[in-house]
Amino acid sequence: MTAAVRQYLVITGNYWAFTLTDGALRMLVVLHFHQLGYSPLEIALLFIFYEFFGIVTNLVGGYLGARIGLNRTMNLGLFLQILALGMLAVPAAMLTVPWVMAAQAMSGIAKDLNKMSAKSGIKLLVPDGEQDRLYKWVAILTGSKNTLKGVGFFLGGVLLMAVGFTGAVIIMAVVLGLVWLASLFLLKQEMGKSKAKPKFREILSKSRAINVLSAARMFLFGARDIWFVVALPVYLHTVFGWDFWKVGGFMATWVIGYGFIQTIAPRITGNMESKGPAVLWAAALALVPAAIAAGLVMGWSPQYVVIGGLLLFGVLFAINSSLHSYLIIRYARGDGVSLDVGFYYMSNAAGRLLGTILSGWVYQVYGLEACLWISAGLVAMAALLSLMLPQRHEAPA
User: Fold this and answer.
1) Nearest 10 degrees: CA dihedral of 143, 113, 104, 222?
2) Are 359 and 148 in contact (CB under 8 A)?
3) Tens of pLDDT, residues 31-65
4) Residues near 272 by beta carbon (within 8 Å), at least 6 away in sequence
5) For the segment 2-11, what is each residue's pLDDT rounded down to a tens digit?
6) What does the alpha-carbon distance between residue 147 and residue 258 come to, in Å, rounded to a whole number?
């Protein structure tokens, strides 16, 4: 086993462990506070700081990664997630909205430090001339992460019913603490540290390709989260009458399948030497939420329309997400890669923030159909922006 493969496995293992707790915590918060009588909009507000600080973290985290090394930013992310889980392991009377929002803010910082470090680290492990290998490694990391996030959704629902909210977060904090201790010894020192110390003003990308791709990513993830984060779990529970086990299990299955499609996306999309696939797959995705909304408006069976449409949306969204994840690593510069990746995932976090807020407000006021129509419009914007990407994917300077 080569040193590069060993480091890839350590990075992936860290990312997997973190993702399990991140998915479980998301489901725990949604279901627990819905059970306490919080409205969809109030639940969405609990995640505002999680998404907002993700924007800040990706910008500053990319800078930190280039200055101090990606091993340190990854381990810092793991440690902050442990602290965030500890903040929630308090008596129920202390779980006020401001307290939970603060814990979610810390979790958001932790998540994006971890993700930025993992995605940037892969760029450094694959030689520039092996782009097929890079695409496959990125797809495997991204897809397996989302598969485990789906497992985390299910785990969150199971733990909530088995040991309660406090017991669940304590168990996750202890397990993640063990992973953090192992990572301190196993992760290569100085990985990703830029040879030329970057200036803070360099956190904003000067690359047109990265700016365009970042904008497309923002609309793409806003389109997913506007109906997936709050609207869908609440809809499944209130309209379909599903209990928490079934809601958590279904959404876990969806994300697991979504992650699997991401891992095999290179086989589906084939050659990635032009911008064509990014445009075509985004255009195809835009049709799905519009079709689901139209079916609901026409009075078709909600179970068939929503569930069937969600499965198709998952397949197409997974392919789009995997394409984007490869393109940002492809476009990013070699020295100081975390600066470009951090800027890109800042846009990703902005899209999630937009989608999360709209998910609670639009669903509460206008219903699921409105969430879906807006989702279709946001994906269409991502497709239009993809037309502005470079025609050929040249290697970065």
Assistant:
1) -50
2) no
3) 788 777 877 777 777 777 887 887 777 777 666 76
4) 131, 135, 266, 323, 326, 327, 330, 393
5) 665 677 677 7
6) 7
| Residue 359 · residue 225 · CB < 8 Å | yes
User: Which residues, at least 6 apart from 280, have a Cβ–Cβ distance to it below 8 Å?
Assistant: none
Residue labelled with tokens 């995932």: 345
CA distance linking residue 114 with residue 165, whole number of Å: 24
Rounded Cα distance between 74 and 57, Å, is 12
pTM attached to this predicted model: 0.70
The tokens describing 381, both together, are 């914007």
Residues facing residue 274 across a β-bridge: 392
Centre a 10 Å sphere on the Cβ of residue 273 and count the other Cβ atoms it contains: 12
Give me the residue label for tokens 């206008």: 366
Buried-exposed string 227-251: b where 16+ CB fall within 10 A, e elsewhere: bbbbbbbbbbbeeeebebeebbbbb
In the block, residue with structure tokens 């430090």: 113
